[in-house]
Amino acid sequence: MDSSQLLIKRPHDAQTVTRLPHLSLLLAFKTVAEEGSFTRAADILHLSQSAVSQQVVRLEEALGVQLFIRSTRAVSLTSAGNELLNDIRGAFEQLVIAFDRCARKGESPTLHVEAEPVLSAFWLTPRLRQFTQRFPGLQIKLLLTTQRVEFPKEVELAVKWGDGHWPGFEAEFLMGLNYVPVCSPVLLRGNKALRKPSDLQHHLLLHDRSHDDWENWQKRYPDVPLSFERGHVVTDSNVLAQLAAQGHGVALCAVELIEQQLRRGELVTPFPEMTMPHWHAYHILTRRNQALSGVATQFIAWLKAEAKGCGESNARPD
């Protein structure tokens, strides 16, 4: 047998033997074909140009066909070479995936999740230990994005705020939110103390990105006089809650996301019964027709259980 070949017995026919070229020869061919140059292929493979050339010649001899048309300035594939390249590309990719999967078996599992910063800071992070305790050694990597979906290849799922429509993704409802006026306890005292809803007209309103939330809240409670012209507008819900806690005005915040601030007394709800279910909600996004890892599947089930525990907020928005 030629040293450039391996004998492979087929499992269903012990008398049939396939002569398979050594992978080093196929790799040399594939690299030259993709680079269009023996010199560049040699640099990539950390071999001399003559060694790469010899490997390609041995492969051509083993197959009995010419794979390249060589000239002094360029190298190009023959039709046989082009067919071979197309046939082996997928196999090499599968080998790389297999080796990578095997090499990672000894590593700690990692779950990549994309999420909104406000949800991560106020709702997910305080609960996360409950999940990680089930998986010793698990590493969770959070990609934080606002008003966009990046979804790089390592991310298996995302938790995003919106209307439930993201082209190219499967979106499953997770949790709705109930918005309510919140402020610093300081605003409950003094000459302009917030004692009844009409007192809101004497205070600045804090807005998340636009006046939309307060305008929709007033439609729900039309008897409350409000002034939308004054007040700060921010593009970060975390900053909005901080402004309210510092006494800069009254904000509309999701009661489900400010549990800790309410518990610590940093924020108060002067009119807790005057809530507004938001028309957007949090959804779990996954790629269509792509299987999830076991830990990702369990993470999604855990998210749903935690969201269900939030009570009314788990209802779909109208």
UniProtKB/TrEMBL annotation:
Gene3D superfamilies: Periplasmic binding protein-like II, Winged helix-like DNA-binding domain superfamily/Winged helix DNA-binding domain. Residues 21-78 form the HTH lysR-type domain. InterPro entries: LysR-type_TF_proteobact-type, LysR_HTH_N, LysR_subst-bd, WH-like_DNA-bd_sf, WH_DNA-bd_sf. The keyword DNA-binding applies. The keyword Plastid does not apply. GO terms for biological process: DNA-templated transcription. It holds the Pfam family HTH_1. Keywords: DNA-binding, Transcription, Transcription regulation. GO terms for molecular function: DNA-binding transcription factor activity; sequence-specific DNA binding. Belongs to the LysR transcriptional regulatory family. This is LysR family transcriptional regulator. It comes from Paraburkholderia azotifigens. The lineage of its organism: Bacteria, Pseudomonadati, Pseudomonadota, Betaproteobacteria, Burkholderiales.
